[in-house]
Amino acid sequence: MNLKGKSFLKLLDFTAEEITGFIDLAAELKAKKKAGIAHDVLKGKNIALIFEKTSTRTRCSFEVAARDLGMGVTYLDPTGSQIGKKESIADTARVLGRMFEGIEYRGFGQEIVEELAKYAGVPVWNGLTDEYHPTQILADFLTIREHFGRLKGINFVYMGDARFNMGNSLMVGCAKMGMNFTACAPKKYFPNAELSAECEKLAAESGGSVRFCEDVAEAVKNADVIYTDVWVSMGEPVEVWEERISDLSPYQVNKAAMDMAGENCVFMHCLPAYHDRKTAVGREMCDRFGRDAMEVTDEVFESERSIVFDEAENRMHTIKAVMAATLGAEF
Questions:
Q1: Is residue 50 very low, low, confident or very high in pLDDT (cuts 50, 70, 90)?
Q2: Are 296 and 273 in contact (CB under 8 A)?
Q3: In whole numbers, what is the pLDDT of the chain averaged over residues?
């Protein structure tokens, strides 16, 4: 697998073999870190992290992974860059590409990260856009493989709003890897029809499947993984909460849904999660709408079937693999 110099923008750009390669490398690097084996093979290189949307897991994953590989890191928060404001995306890309060996972008439209990659002259990595979140999916797949020993044939159910980056990226990833993907939501929350059709073709080739289901009991039957995300995405106005709660409450991941799936089903979430009243937004929305939790109950989130923190840790290992592979690291 030679991916040196290639950007990591969306999983549609990679073959199943290349995705497996990223996961294999992540597992190798995770084992090295656990064993205390140094792997700082990219000493002297530097990367820039552009965050137009803030993050805990993505920022920490990139920073720790880069330092483990021996690299320097420059973090540009929403006020620390002129990208798209006083300087065009193309000009920003060409400037940063002269100073850094790689650039991460987390922000808004997919067209921004694509344009950065077009002009930078160095690998650009997508830390999240409105349309795709590919580094999260690699972490999810490493976690599933660790738990089940395989990806192919896994019955994967995504419950909730599947129209944006997580629903899109999980559908693409499952279709590529021969998994059986189900989006369980009201019809208006299904993924984009054009992307869905493309994923159905990919699934037919890989031996997987893609389906859309409005009935929870039907969707979760024989599920290996039930996955959800917050009902209101980052950057959306608070006013949409009422509509989302009304539409998506029947699709909350609770004990009943997990029990219908079967005892071997695990719960996953990309985090942060509104599973209790211990966050400012969660408390405000729960008080406003008379709820104890939103997309997942605390009972499920804190249960032995929840592998969300394995998943969160694996963000760092898989991001490290992406950077190492695209920067041509040799171990």
A1: very high
A2: yes
A3: 96
Instruction: State the Cα angle at 100 between 10 and 121, rounded to 5°.
Output: 55
User: Which residues does 64 contact at the CB level (< 8 Å), separation at least 6?
Assistant: 316
pLDDT at 328 over 90: yes
Q: Are 308 and 269 in contact (CB under 8 A)?
A: yes
Rounded-to-integer distance, Cα 250 and Cα 234, Å: 22
pLDDT of 83 higher than 70: yes
Average pLDDT over residues 93-104: 98
Tell me the pTM: 0.97
| Residues 6 or more apart whose Cβ sits within 8 Å of residue 37 | none
- Longest Cα–Cα distance of the chain, Å, equals 55
> Which segments of the chain does DSSP mark as H helices, in order?
16-34, 57-68, 89-99, 110-120, 134-148, 165-176, 193-206, 216-220, 241-248, 255-261, 280-289, 298-301, 308-326
So which residues are the catalytic ones? Answer: 106, 133, 136, 229, 270, 315
Classify residue 290 as left (phi > 0), alpha (psi -120 to 50) or beta: left
Give SS3 for 208. coil
Q: 269 — phi, psi (to 5°)?
A: -160, 135
Looking only at the bridges linking them, the beta strands covering 155-159 and 180-184 are parallel
The residue to which tokens 């999260």 are assigned: 136
Could you give phi then psi for residue 25, rounded to 5 degrees?
-65, -40
